[in-house]
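Subject: design request, 657 residues
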């Protein structure tokens, strides 16, 4: 969570640790009530340490230190008593007061700290999670051999190759596999670690710490949208939900028009889509719905609305209860992530994969002899052990995802359109309470969806889907009003289901970098997108009601609900949720799909890279990830990313031939 508006009071206390931990302990005891356990404050402090941006970390820790002084406590809570000495009931009242405060600084404290405490309590085994009926991981990880041998340099090192690829996810994995197969010498730099089937503990909190970008602490700068992405060898493809939708023809047509790149309409991108779908084994034959998708389908069918199967990139997927944990890595090796496809292809063809290698900048030789652009000559990275790794190369491919690719390019001195046009596919959800346990954490990751609203309202209307929900993320998303109210919601966790509202955003955000080079995401929910989100939530509520929910509610700050059966209740609820709004922290919003921040296009005035994926400003520097999208894909983006990376690889190979 970024935290721009936190008080500066106490900044010098940053890093003190124990004082902040004591304040976190007091606040967590108030937020959690009887669900508190002493491991929570330490976990909170550790998660705060993963917040990107030194300045934001300092501000957060500074605010905590200030809360333990009389003056700071007075300023931030209205009581002169240091927070660490206050009883749980007083801390609970403080947090409740923050949530409703007219002062932005106080509201931000609630928005930052309450979900953190809830995640720290429910994301790991302990008294909080035990009371939810959640079974935890289903047994130990299999004793399967690791199939890759990535490098982990333990000193300063220099490597040389034809192409250095930054990032190993949907884009980077495909580029590396294709270029290595074409006979080029490839080095892949991945800032995450390497985890294979035997390493997937399926412990929710640990998975966020080890497999996700910034341990899921990244948010938009107003804290309104949590930005979730994978960060491990294989990137998002290791943790994602295996939905493999191709961009619809109208999206490809829009991309051709917006970018001026004919390939979107000419069949060239379609050929790349077919190639990657084939390599990943994309199929609709392994989409057996679990309980949560059955409810979605039932509700849609009873309303007479569109319901379709989701194609998935799996081979030999059992589609059983254990599948719901694959957001923490697929233990069966069924999910065809780049880890078990393109990166294996790359390694087999001699590519070197380096993990724990955080690319800090692209090395750029200044323009010479009248050339318009400088030339990329390699990448400088920092290893997990703090050593310098320099990779000299004839070409550099940035595929670090739509947040980190622009950050890397901005750190390297590029400007122009780099970082602009960011789309997040912001999502919210309607929740339904059912009479029978649903156990929404189980079952095929995603099996059904509805494009009903898109058919009725046009190409920017939301899709309806479900997703596996585990206690940590549920606890952080469910609105907190008081310890007892939240705990009561968590105790019926097994009976909840959801219909998620996946918005295709027309409004744009922007990625910038802080002074220490870390990304900062400026993003606000656009009013037109907010209106479409409201329509999506109303529809999601209708679906849950039709599926038999006894109660339906939103995850807005003011949790609004209705009981199906009361005449007019759904309509009144839809109107109330629309009025309550979704922007500026009024609802829990999540982004699982970031894109568009270095978009491809013919015109440098509106794009960051040219039609051949080469940066307008630097020769030899290519982009091959979700950053390229001219506008939001409107469908889950992995397959589109891979297709564009497939195309990018062909352009790079042709250039180096
Ligand atoms: C939980 C979850 C579920 C999802 N489900 C689906 C789904 O079902 N279907 C779908 O289509 N999409 C899904 N997505 C989205 C999809 O996974 C992403 O859109 C896709 O992976 C993006 O590809 P990418 O190559 O742009 O980035 P990523 O796949 O995120 O890869 C970027 C990689 O670069 C690395 N990196 C970042 N910075 C640096 C650096 N400085 N140096 C070195 N390495 C760096 C990161 O660690 C990461 O591994 C999901 C995402 C999440 C998080």
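Subject: RE: design request

Done. Sequence follows.
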């Amino acid at each position: 969570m970024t935290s721009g508006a936190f008080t500066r009071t106490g900044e010098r206390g940053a890093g003190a640790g124990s004082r902040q931990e004591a304040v976190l302990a007091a606040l967590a005891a108030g937020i959690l009530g009887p669900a508190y356990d002493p491991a929570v404050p330490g976990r909170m402090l550790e998660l705060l340490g993963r917040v990107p941006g030194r300045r934001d970390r300092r501000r957060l820790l500074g605010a905590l230190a200030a809360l333990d002084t009389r003056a700071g406590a007075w300023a931030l809570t209205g009581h002169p008593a240091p927070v660490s000495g206050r009883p749980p009931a007083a801390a609970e009242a403080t947090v409740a007061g923050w949530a409703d405060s007219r002062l932005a600084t106080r509201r931000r404290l609630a928005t930052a700290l309450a979900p953190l405490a809830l995640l720290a309590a429910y994301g790991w085994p302990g008294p909080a999670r035990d009371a939810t009926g959640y079974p935890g991981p289903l047994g130990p990880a299999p004793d399967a051999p690791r199939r890759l041998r990535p490098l982990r340099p333990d000193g300063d090192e220099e490597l040389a190759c034809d192409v250095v690829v930054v990032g190993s996810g949907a884009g980077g994995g495909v580029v590396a596999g294709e270029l290595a197969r074409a006979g080029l010498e490839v080095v892949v730099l991945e800032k995450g670690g390497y985890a294979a089937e035997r390493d997937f503990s399926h412990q929710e909190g640990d998975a966020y710490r080890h497999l996700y970008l910034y341990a899921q602490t990244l948010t938009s700068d107003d804290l309104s949208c949590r930005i979730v992405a994978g960060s491990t060898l294989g990137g998002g493809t290791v943790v994602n939900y295996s939905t493999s939708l191709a961009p619809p023809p109208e999206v490809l047509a829009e991309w051709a028009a917006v970018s001026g790149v004919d390939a979107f309409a000419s069949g060239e991108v379609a050929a790349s889509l077919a190639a990657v779908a084939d390599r990943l084994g994309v199929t609709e034959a392994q989409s057996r719905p679990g309980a949560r998708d059955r409810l979605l389908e039932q509700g849609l069918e009873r309303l007479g609305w569109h319901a379709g199967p989701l194609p998935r990139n799996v081979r030999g997927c059992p589609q059983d209860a254990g599948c719901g944990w694959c957001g923490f890595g697929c233990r069966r090796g069924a999910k065809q992530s780049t880890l078990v496809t393109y990166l294996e292809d790359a390694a087999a063809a001699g590519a070197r994969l380096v993990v724990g290698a955080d690319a800090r900048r692209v090395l750029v030789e200044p323009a010479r002899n009248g050339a318009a652009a400088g030339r990329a000559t390699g990448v400088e990275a920092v290893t997990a052990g703090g050593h310098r790794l320099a990779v000299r190369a004839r070409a550099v491919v940035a595929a670090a995802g739509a947040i980190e690719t622009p950050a890397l390019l901005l750190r390297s001195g590029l400007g122009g359109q780099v970082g602009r046009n960011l789309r997040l596919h912001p999502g919210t959800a309607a929740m339904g309470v059912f009479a029978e346990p649903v156990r929404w954490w189980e079952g095929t990751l995603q099996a059904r969806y509805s494009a009903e609203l898109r058919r009725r309202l046009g190409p920017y209307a939301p899709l309806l889907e479900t997703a596996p929900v585990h206690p940590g993320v549920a606890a952080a998303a469910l609105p907190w009003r008081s310890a007892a109210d939240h705990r009561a919601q968590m105790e019926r966790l097994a009976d909840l289901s959801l219909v998620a509202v996946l918005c295709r955003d027309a409004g744009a955000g922007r990625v910038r970098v802080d002074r220490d080079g870390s990304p900062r995401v400026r993003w606000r929910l656009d009013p037109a997108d907010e209106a479409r989100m409201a329509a999506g939530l109303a529809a999601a509520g209708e679906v849950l009601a039709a599926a038999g929910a006894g109660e339906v509610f939103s995850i807005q700050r003011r949790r609004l609900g209705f009981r199906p059966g009361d005449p007019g209740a759904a309509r009144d609820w839809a109107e109330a949720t629309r009025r309550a709004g979704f922007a500026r922290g009024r609802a829990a919003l999540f982004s699982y799909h970031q894109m568009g921040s270095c978009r491809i296009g013919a015109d440098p005035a509106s794009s960051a890279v040219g039609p051949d994926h080469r940066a307008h400003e630097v020769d030899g520097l290519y982009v091959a990830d979700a950053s390229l999208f001219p506008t939001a894909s409107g469908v889950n983006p992995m397959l589109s990313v891979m297709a564009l990376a497939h195309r990018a690889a062909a352009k790079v190979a042709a250039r180096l031939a």
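The CA atoms of residues 259 and 601 lie 4 Å apart.
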